[in-house]
Amino acid sequence: MKERLASLREAIDGTLDRLLAGDPLSPPRILEAARYAVLGGGKRLRPTLLVLSGEALGGRREDLLPAAGAVEMIHAFSLVHDDLPALDDDALRRGRPTVHVRFDEATAILAGDALLNLAFETLARWPEGNGWSRRKLEAIRILGAAVGMSGMIGGQVLDLEFEGKDASTEDLERIHRLKTGALITACCVAGGLLAGGGRAEIEALDGYGRALGLAFQITDDILDVEGTAGQIGKSPGKDAKDAKATFPSLYGIEESRRLSARSTAAAVEALAPLGPRGDLLAEVARSVATRRN
Questions:
Q1: Could you give all domains of the chain from N- to C-terminal order, each with its CATH number?
Q2: Is 270 in contact with 201 (CB distance < 8 Å)?
Q3: H/E element, 275
Q4: Is 70 exceeded by the pLDDT of residue 113?
Q5: Cβ burial 185-222 (10 Å sphere, 16+ → b, else e)
Q6: Does the pLDDT at position 158 exceed 90?
Q7: 22-66, pLDDT tens digit by residue?
Q8: Distances in whole angstroms, Cα of residue 255 to Cα of each of 251, 258, 262
Q9: What mean pLDDT do residues 161-184 have?
Q10: What is the pTM of this model?
Q11: What percent of the chain is modeled with pLDDT above 70?
Q12: Cα separation of 244 and 221, whole Å?
């Protein structure tokens, strides 16, 4: 698995480098900021999930890579904006100064905007050919909804609204299913749609993505408590400092670990209709639950 994932990571990074090559009309500063935001490390989980989901249903890697690059740019846009002083006000991301610290706040806002726009331009352009039109349109629809007011943006709004307030278990799960889980789920579904998957296969990927998104967020919350800046590449302890609604704050560390394990098991179980085709996705789910960064 490690070799296959390493090869995929290399292909994703190469795709991102090409997509962010710029053109003569791009001012150098905004291009530099966008490349800094995207190419400076990261787990590449979301593009990996898109490609593996598509490959599990018979898709070709070369057809899936542009969309994989697009979802990583969407993710990077969300991080750039999330780090801004008006939101989480963080100075460290992926072990480096955040974009607004390295450049300035205005450039960071515009770089995030540029990445989101380039992502959807990429989704619309590739793969080329009339036979892809319906599949690309469905992928755009799914991903657009996942990052909009009823998805990631909505989750970020709720996250801010619940700072310093008592959140119920239902509130907490809703925040994180939208803020984090919606895009993770959409990446799995979009990969399956681009590969031409059938209804049962897409439903399996949807269930997998929902459970995995929750496991990922629970683990992220735990790492904010237990991790160091060197491990997680960002400022630890910010959730508690900002009085965020998190799984450890509501359940405690040990129960949070149990919840993460249950969500991981649910993700693996959701892949049952795919049989052996889902084995690599299952391994990714297990690695998410045990990650240390």
A1: 2-289 (1.10.600.10)
A2: no
A3: none
A4: yes
A5: bbbbbbbbbbbebeeebbebbbbbbbbbbbbbbbbbbb
A6: yes
A7: 888 999 999 999 999 999 889 999 999 999 999 999 999 999 999
A8: 6, 5, 11
A9: 93
A10: 0.95
A11: 95
A12: 10
